[in-house]
């Protein structure tokens, strides 16, 4: 069951439904007619994405699944402003995305923490780059580390933490500048099964507390169903959206729901697109 739509007073100043008229676009993330073509100098062009349309509401948790090479990470990089699009329109919170914007936080496949900086110092990196108020961002960094159970490790270095703890620190870093949107590229792929399940629950808790919009790329269909309000199913390359699936499971979600019959119906429906469970 999707989260309720935000009230008018909680929306971005770049889009006001109170003045936008009857047909105002409620999308927080808007992608229309998106193409991405890689054009190497010495080989034929590769079409990574073709005519992708995607609208995400504020506060939604949306996952993207599909076979390897279908353009999931490419889509995320374009949303993050890290890769140029070939054609189409992309906007977040009413702002056209042509380069990285402060409304977006990114969590990568690996935590990518700077080894010479402490955990607290790593979390503060986006705030330093954006030259945000030091006192406020330091307080927020402490609050975030406390929220994910890393307060006592704030002065440790990355090599002193487990993989799951490093990834939690990476999520804090993505949240420290209070972004409206968090983009996550297979953040739990390298974790063992038990740690991954714990991080799923941790991510839901962080999402509920931060009220951010999350777009998660994952190869795990059960994970996508368990976490999401909607699942975007992508076709093999060139990547297109095959289906946008509403996940009607109650919130708050409990881990046992991942293996429930209700979740299983969605999992099997998605698997049929790939005729196997190889992307699990």
From TrEMBL:
<feature type="compositionally biased region" description="Polar residues">
    <location>
        <begin position="1"/>
        <end position="14"/>
    </location>
</feature>
<feature type="region of interest" description="Disordered">
    <location>
        <begin position="1"/>
        <end position="26"/>
    </location>
</feature>
<dbReference type="InterPro" id="IPR017871">
    <property type="entry name" value="ABC_transporter-like_CS"/>
</dbReference>
<dbReference type="GO" id="GO:0016887">
    <property type="term" value="F:ATP hydrolysis activity"/>
</dbReference>
<dbReference type="InterPro" id="IPR027417">
    <property type="entry name" value="P-loop_NTPase"/>
</dbReference>
<dbReference type="GO" id="GO:0005524">
    <property type="term" value="F:ATP binding"/>
</dbReference>
<dbReference type="InterPro" id="IPR003439">
    <property type="entry name" value="ABC_transporter-like_ATP-bd"/>
</dbReference>
<protein>
    <submittedName>
        <fullName>ATP-binding cassette domain-containing protein</fullName>
    </submittedName>
</protein>
<keyword id="KW-0813">Transport</keyword>
<keyword id="KW-0067">ATP-binding</keyword>
<dbReference type="InterPro" id="IPR050166">
    <property type="entry name" value="ABC_transporter_ATP-bind"/>
</dbReference>
<dbReference type="InterPro" id="IPR003593">
    <property type="entry name" value="AAA+_ATPase"/>
</dbReference>
<keyword id="KW-0547">Nucleotide-binding</keyword>
<dbReference type="Pfam" id="PF00005">
    <property type="entry name" value="ABC_tran"/>
</dbReference>
């Amino acid at each position: 069951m999707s989260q309720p739509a935000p009230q008018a007073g909680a929306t971005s100043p770049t889009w006001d439904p109170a003045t936008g008229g009857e047909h105002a676009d409620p999308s927080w993330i808007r992608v229309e007619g998106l193409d991405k073509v890689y054009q190497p100098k010495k080989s034929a062009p590769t079409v990574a994405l073709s005519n992708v349309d995607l609208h995400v509401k504020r506060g939604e948790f949306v996952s993207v699944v599909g076979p390897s090479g279908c353009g999931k990470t490419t889509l995320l990089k374009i949303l993050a402003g890290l890769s140029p699009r070939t054609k189409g329109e992309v906007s977040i919170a009413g702002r056209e995305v042509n380069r990285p914007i402060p409304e977006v936080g990114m969590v990568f496949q690996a935590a990518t923490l700077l080894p010479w900086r402490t955990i607290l110092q790593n979390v503060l990196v986006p705030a330093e780059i954006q030259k945000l108020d030091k006192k406020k961002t330091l307080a927020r960094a402490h609050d975030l580390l406390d929220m994910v159970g890393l307060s006592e490790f704030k002065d440790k270095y990355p090599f002193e933490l487990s993989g799951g703890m490093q990834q939690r620190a990476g999520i804090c870093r993505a949240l420290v500048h209070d972004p409206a949107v968090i983009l996550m590229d297979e953040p739990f792929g390298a974790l063992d099964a038990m740690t991954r399940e714990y991080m799923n629950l941790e991510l839901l808790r962080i999402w509920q507390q931060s009220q951010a919009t999350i777009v998660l790329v994952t190869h795990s269909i059960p994970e996508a169903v368990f976490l999401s309000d909607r699942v975007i199913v992508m076709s093999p390359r060139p990547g297109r959206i095959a289906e946008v699936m509403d996940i009607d499971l109650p919130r708050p979600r409990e881990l046992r729901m991942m293996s429930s019959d209700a979740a299983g119906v969605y999992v099997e429906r998605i698997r049929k697109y790939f005729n196997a469970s190889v992307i699990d």
